[in-house]
């Protein structure tokens, strides 16, 4: 039933179908992505105006305003997210450096802790504003940092946490 000629036809059919599939994918890619990646020198055919602008929109109060009315007791609760890696006791490091007296302290200044060096390229001192930016998005603020925390997106949580940290070691 299956002889050499039948197997050759089946193999030829499979290879032919595969070739048609690859060529069809290449042709579709050329047709639908002609403007992307430097292919073509003409503008997009049409634009849809969504009313959005490229300029960042100021949302809500500034960090300084929120920090002025921050609640250190609420910040103590927010610190629980940090406590698995950071300690509050002076000279006691965890996975991260001690946060004892961190507000106002120079960056990368704890003796005996192996810093990545990424923070020194961005800031010199841990001001409340610098801490807020770092805690919001650590890897976005200091690319190359070893801190694996995703960040605190809520400005009130960051302000409360920094208010709490400012009471430790001052």
Task: Explain the overall architecture.
- The protein has six helices and no strands.
- The chain is mainly α and 170 residues long.
- The chain has a domain at 63-166: Cytochrome c-like domain (Cytochrome Bc1 Complex, Chain D, domain 2, Orthogonal Bundle).
- The longest helix has 29 residues, at 4-32.
Q: What is the helical fraction, as a range of percent?
A: 25-40%
Number of helices: 6
Helix-strand pattern, N to C? HHHHHH
Low-confidence stretches: none
General form: elongated
Q: What is the radius of gyration?
A: 28 Å
CATH architecture of the domain at 63-166: Orthogonal Bundle
Span between N and C termini?
A: 90 Å
CATH class of the domain at 63-166: Mainly Alpha
What is CATH's topology name of the domain at 63-166? Cytochrome Bc1 Complex, Chain D, domain 2
Percent of sequence in beta strands? under 5%
Characterize the largest beta sheet: strand count, sense, and whether it forms a barrel: none
Q: Can you count the beta strands?
A: 0
Mean pLDDT across all amino acids: 85
- The CATH homologous superfamily of the domain at 63-166 is termed Cytochrome c-like domain
What does the secondary structure layout of this molecule look like, with pairings?
Elements: H1 4-32, H2 63-68, H3 72-78, H4 128-136, H5 138-141, H6 155-166
Helix pairs in contact: 3-6, 4-6
């Amino acid at each position: 039933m299956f002889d050499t000629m039948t197997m050759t036809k089946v193999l030829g059919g499979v290879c032919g179908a595969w070739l048609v599939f690859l060529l069809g994918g290449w042709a579709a890619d050329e047709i639908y992505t002609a403007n992307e990646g430097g292919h073509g020198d003409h503008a997009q055919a049409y634009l849809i105006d969504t009313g959005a602008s490229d300029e960042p929109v100021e949302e809500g109060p500034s960090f300084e305003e929120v920090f002025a009315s921050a609640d250190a007791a609420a910040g103590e609760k927010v610190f629980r997210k940090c406590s698995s890696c950071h300690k509050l006791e002076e000279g006691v490091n965890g996975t991260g450096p001690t946060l004892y007296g961190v507000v106002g302290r120079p960056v990368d200044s704890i003796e005996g802790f192996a810093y990545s060096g990424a923070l020194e390229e961005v800031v010199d001192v841990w001001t409340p504003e610098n801490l807020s930016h770092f805690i919001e998005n650590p890897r976005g603020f200091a690319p190359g940092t070893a801190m694996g925390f995703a960040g605190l997106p809520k400005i009130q949580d960051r302000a409360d946490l920094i208010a709490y940290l400012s009471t430790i070691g001052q």
